[in-house]
């Protein structure tokens, strides 16, 4: 796989071990199905509230995710005590092997690097948000059911000075072959913590 | 032997309906459906049985009586061989001129009801064991439907995937 | 309307096949000739198994999502009672699903359940198996039995071991095929409350609730005591957010035809957080039915 070539095998393995160790020993856990069903209730209610305007639903899910992301990053840094990532390659490894592992107990694959190494894709082989979901016919072309994830990533990355575009490319819920999230770095923000943000 | 099957919701509203017919020969020409006049009566027969089901629904001694005493204990219509610990499958609950009506109730009170026709002039026959298995598997399909956050409980199930799976089960258990 | 034009590339073949589902306004569809040969309609939803996989996520993920849901509802509510009833509805939509889901799972004999749990518990009892998902451990896993509070002892051993393996292979598709007796529908208040206190609570929060109490003053009132209150422990003292779990209880009981209202009350004594008491008030008709049917 491309990932192991990008980062040295030992670095990659050590992140994997860190993620697994924290998940196993330092994480309080809860039934994933309760999480799935709660998220399902939120999305279906939003679709009703916005009268099936799925673009608005996507935006709302993204903004909910963003709010989560900007808080979740503190929790993440406190628990992992990882140093700042020097490049997007390491960032991608930390996201998949540590962040996704610790919060959702899944490890997406990293692939489709851009030539300049500033954009990559996450392939979600499993997605606890979308178990037992079948999109309504009119939603399959518009709704990104798990769009909250993009918001979380965007918010969390911004808090570590990485201004990124995060969006879904495809989703198996839309009868597409795989679930893919694209992350592209726009710029590295000035190293100042915004004041008054809470 | 044709069947008319329906899932009936809380307010006696149909959530799903289907008619099953046996296929004879590869060409499928020998299909035996309900005669037209009966076909129109099916929903009425089925609804007439709902009161009986609602009464049986709250009986604690459903299985015990139907296994042991047969015609006593107020359960004369029910099948005798539903010897199990379950109270979801009721067996035969009613009959109408040689047609038999069976029923099954899910945990949230959805009623699965079926009118069993006969292929000849004789009275319809019901194999409780396979009918029960049919109901159980449809129950599972119903639960999958319910798990989808976009499905509103009690509304008609219009999914073609659901429909085709129910029909596959009907061929497997009812019209072998 | 261009939408109504027949699409030439797709419509031709499919018009002969039953690709549409049940249509309420049309009524029951008859079986079609050669239906058995019609193409299988793929569906992610219907090919997922209902077998409990015991997957988990971090409690903090759930807490983040829960808080975001709370603020979303809060921003769209004009009063606290509107907030509470909206939150209750979210919970209730989950409760009614759990009613069906947990009952059918509790119908599966416990020995067949261990198959799926060995896969996740990384338990070494089955090292030789090449395919963990569909293999069975013949030694019953103690962790796997907590869903089955009713005894399924009658089912044990009716199948030869080869049969069990065959059956389990199918189970990736069907849970019902593993069930010989569906769990009894709960008909009495005490039975369904015990299911709530034991099975449902264990499923949601990892252990039974701390207590299930009948009110000594009012005949229709029961209480579930929960010291942990896992979802709201991080949220400051107001009980409003506990309406979510109230909704789960209320949705579950009401759909099982035990209509009731459920309200949260704090269980604080001397300033110590004693968790939440969920007060369940059954509608009159429930007690009337119970007296009529099973009365003393």
Automatic annotation (TrEMBL), chain A:
One of its GO terms (molecular function) is guanyl-nucleotide exchange factor activity. This is Trafficking protein particle complex subunit BET3. Its main location: endoplasmic reticulum. GO terms for cellular component: cis-Golgi network membrane; endoplasmic reticulum; TRAPPI protein complex; TRAPPII protein complex; TRAPPIII protein complex. Keywords: Endoplasmic reticulum, ER-Golgi transport, Golgi apparatus, Transport. GO terms for biological process: cellular response to nitrogen starvation; cytoplasm to vacuole targeting by the Cvt pathway; endoplasmic reticulum to Golgi vesicle-mediated transport; intra-Golgi vesicle-mediated transport; macroautophagy. The keyword Signal does not apply. It comes from the Eukaryota. SUPFAM superfamilies: Ligand-binding domain in the NO signalling and Golgi transport. Pfam families: TRAPP. It is found in: Endoplasmic reticulum; Golgi apparatus, cis-Golgi network. It comes from Vanderwaltozyma polyspora (strain ATCC 22028 / DSM 70294 / BCRC 21397 / CBS 2163 / NBRC 10782 / NRRL Y-8283 / UCD 57-17). Belongs to the TRAPP small subunits family. BET3 subfamily.
TrEMBL record, chain B:
One of its GO terms (cellular component) is TRAPPIII protein complex. This is Trafficking protein particle complex subunit. It holds the Pfam family Sedlin_N. PANTHER family: TRAFFICKING PROTEIN PARTICLE COMPLEX SUBUNIT 2. GO terms for biological process: endoplasmic reticulum to Golgi vesicle-mediated transport; protein-containing complex assembly. The lineage of its organism: Eukaryota, Fungi, Dikarya, Ascomycota, Saccharomycotina. It comes from the Eukaryota. Coiled coil: none annotated.
UniProtKB/TrEMBL annotation, chain C:
GO terms for biological process: endoplasmic reticulum to Golgi vesicle-mediated transport. It is found in: Endoplasmic reticulum; Golgi apparatus. Transmembrane segments: none annotated. Residues 119-152 are annotated as: Disordered. Its main location: endoplasmic reticulum. Keywords: Endoplasmic reticulum, ER-Golgi transport, Golgi apparatus, Transport. Signal peptide: none annotated. One of its GO terms (cellular component) is TRAPPII protein complex. One of its GO terms (molecular function) is guanyl-nucleotide exchange factor activity. Residues 119-148 have a biased composition (Low complexity). Belongs to the TRAPP small subunits family. BET3 subfamily. This is Trafficking protein particle complex subunit. The lineage of its organism: Eukaryota, Fungi, Dikarya, Ascomycota, Saccharomycotina.
């Amino acid at each position: 796989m491309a990932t192991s070539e990008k980062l040295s095998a030992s670095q990659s393995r050590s992140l994997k071990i860190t993620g697994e160790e924290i998940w196993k020993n330092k994480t309080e856990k809860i039934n994933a199905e309760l999480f799935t069903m709660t998220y399902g209730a939120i999305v279906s209610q939003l679709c009703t509230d916005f009268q099936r305007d799925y673009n608005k639903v996507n935006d709302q899910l993204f903004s909910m995710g963003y709010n989560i992301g900007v808080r979740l990053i503190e929790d993440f840094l406190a628990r992992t005590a990882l140093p700042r990532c020097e490049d997007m390659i390491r960032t991608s490894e930390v996201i998949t092997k540590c962040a996704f592992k610790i919060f959702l107990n899944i490890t997406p694959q990293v692939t489709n690097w851009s030539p300049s190494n500033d954009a990559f894709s996450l392939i979600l082989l499993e997605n606890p948000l979308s178990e037992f979901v079948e999109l309504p016919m009119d939603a399959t072309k518009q709704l990104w059911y798990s769009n909250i994830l993009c918001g979380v990533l965007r918010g969390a990355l911004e808090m570590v000075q990485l201004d990124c575009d995060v969006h879904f490319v495809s989703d198996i819920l839309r009868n597409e072959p795989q679930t893919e999230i694209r992350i592209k770095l726009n710029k590295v923000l000035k190293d100042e913590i915004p004041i008054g943000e809470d | 032997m044709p069947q008319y099957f329906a899932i009936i919701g809380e307010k006696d509203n149909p959530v799903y309906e289907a008619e099953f017919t046996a296929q004879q020969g590869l060409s499928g020409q020998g299909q035996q459906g309900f005669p037209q006049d009966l076909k129109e009566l099916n929903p009425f027969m089925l609804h007439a049985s709902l009161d009986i089901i609602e009464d049986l629904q709250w009986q604690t001694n459903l299985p015990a009586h139907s296994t042991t005493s047969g015609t006593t204990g107020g359960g004369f219509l029910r099948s005798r061989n539903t010897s199990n610990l379950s109270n979801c499958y009721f067996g035969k609950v009613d009959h109408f001129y040689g047609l038999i009506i069976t029923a099954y109730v899910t945990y949230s009170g959805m009623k699965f009801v079926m009118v069993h026709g006969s292929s000849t002039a004789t009275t319809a026959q019901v194999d409780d064991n396979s009918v029960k298995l049919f109901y159980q598997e449809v129950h599972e399909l119903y639960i999958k439907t319910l798990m989808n956050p976009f499905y509103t409980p009690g509304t008609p199930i219009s999914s073609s995937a659901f429909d085709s799976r129910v029909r596959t089960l009907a061929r497997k258990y009812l019209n072998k | 309307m261009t939408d109504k034009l027949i699409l030439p590339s797709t419509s031709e073949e499919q018009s002969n096949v039953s690709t549409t589902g049940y249509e309420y306004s049309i009524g029951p569809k008859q079986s079609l000739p050669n239906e058995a040969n019609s193409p299988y309609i793929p569906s992610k939803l219907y090919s997922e198994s209902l077998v409990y996989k015991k997957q988990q996520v971090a409690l903090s993920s759930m807490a983040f999502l829960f808080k975001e849901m709370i603020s979303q509802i809060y921003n769209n509510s004009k009063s606290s009672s509107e907030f509470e009833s909206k939150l209750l509805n979210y919970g209730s939509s989950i409760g009614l699903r759990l009613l069906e889901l947990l009952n059918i799972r509790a119908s599966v004999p416990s020995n067949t359940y261990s198959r799926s749990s060995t896969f996740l518990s990384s338990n070494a009892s089955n090292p030789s198996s090449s395919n963990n998902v569909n293999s069975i451990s013949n030694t019953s896993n103690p962790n796997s039995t907590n869903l089955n509070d009713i005894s399924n002892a009658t089912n044990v051993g009716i199948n030869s071991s080869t049969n069990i393996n065959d059956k389990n292979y199918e189970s990736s598709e069907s849970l019902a095929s593993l069930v010989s007796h569906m769990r009894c529908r709960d008909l009495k208040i005490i039975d369904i409350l015990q299911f709530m206190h034991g099975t449902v609570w264990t499923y949601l929060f990892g252990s039974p609730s701390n207590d299930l109490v009948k009110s000594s003053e009012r005949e229709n009132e029961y209480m579930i005591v929960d010291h942990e209150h896992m979802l709201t422990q991080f949220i400051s003292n107001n009980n409003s957010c506990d309406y979510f779990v109230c909704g789960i209880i209320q949705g579950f009981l009401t759909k099982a035809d035990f209509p009731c209202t459920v309200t949260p009350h704090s269980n604080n004594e001397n300033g110590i957080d004693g968790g939440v008491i969920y007060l369940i008030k059954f509608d009159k008709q429930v007690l009337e039915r119970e007296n009529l049917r099973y009365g003393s």
